[in-house]
Amino acid sequence: MAAYILRRLLLIVPTLFGIMLINFVLVQFVPGGPIEQIIAQLDEESSATDRISGGGDFGGGGGARESEYQGARGLPEDFIADLERQFGFDKPPAERFFLMLWNYVRFDFGESYFRSISVVDLVLEKMPVSISLGLWSTLLAYLISIPLGIRKAMRDGSRFDTWTSGVVIVAYAIPSFLFAIMLLVLFAGGSYWKIFPLRGLTSDNFAEMSFLQQVGDYLWHIALPVAAATISSFATLTLLTKNSFLDEIKKQYVVTARAKGLSESRVLYGHVFRNAMLIIIAGFPGLFISVFFSGSLIIETVFSLDGLGRLGFEAAVNRDYPVLFGTLYFFSLIGLLIGLISDLTYVWVDPRIDFESRET
């Protein structure tokens, strides 16, 4: 197992390099970088000033490189050169790429282009929202889906199985953003009841509350976003649990255990449970990390939560490359490590699994 872990850790290096290289190359062909955005903003401000004052050029003479930066008329070339040096675009792309990787290896992600704050501090600032959504929605999905899936497997084909399957399918079919809007309309003062707050993770006077009040206020704010984030994963996990238990119940060792006179609960929880729950328990790290990193943008937008989902989206729109590539590097590294942790969880749940011997 030690050799398998070492190989997986070594494989992270070329995988991470490939992810960063592909995204860096793609970004080079995307128009509207940070310099272009600053020039466009200055051009708009200059046009607005001209309309008010009745004409005139911004910044005095100086030719603009129209072939490189559209809309840069009237801006002196030394000003554009200063912008290039400020953002590091005076260097060749290959040099910028390897310099970026060298900094990232040392976990130096630089500062945001437009917010004058380090990328690490920016991520830490947004982390509580994403942790809240990812952790609580994943735990809630498991707490609901596992008992429900086991119950459906034990009563396969019954009326209970039929109507709960209908509920699960409907829940899976509802888009998370539509369900989030419905929750807002019904329970956040949209058109019916104002039971839960409309936005935010805590109240304005959160710091003045006692500890128990803070816990209650936090749960009060997070209830609707977590419910909206849970609905699709809950449906998938329920059916996965049911099918996993049905497959195990039909195997020969279960028939043998029943023939020996073991009670149904002993057969279910003493023999079937560990084998059936293998794929579900071992998949917990991957499910959490997927909800944590990629599934929160729409939920954060609907409930006005400022988390990692909105941070990544705004960085892509604004071409804030330090934030974009810094978070990409960090999240990719975490995702690769979580993949290894998932494999180790399989071994922990069932020691009979040996990835090293399987490879040989």
UniProtKB/TrEMBL annotation:
InterPro entries per UniProt: MetI-like, MetI-like_sf
GO cellular component: plasma membrane
Subcellular location(s) per record: Cell inner membrane; Cell membrane
Primary localisation category: membrane
SUPFAM superfamilies: MetI-like
Pfam families per UniProt: BPD_transp_1
Positions with biased composition (Gly residues): 53-64
Ranges annotated as spanning the membrane: 9-30, 129-150, 162-188, 218-241, 276-299, 328-349
Region of interest (Disordered), ranges: 49-69
Domain ABC transmembrane type-1: 127-346
GO BP, sorted A to Z: microcin transport; transmembrane transport
Record membrane topology: Multi-pass membrane protein
Keyword list, A-Z: Cell inner membrane, Cell membrane, Membrane, Transmembrane, Transmembrane helix, Transport
NCBIfam families for this protein: PRK15133.1 (NF011712)
Similarity field: Belongs to the binding-protein-dependent transport system permease family.
Protein name: Microcin C ABC transporter permease YejB
Organism encoding this protein: Oceanomicrobium pacificus
Gene giving rise to this polypeptide: yejB
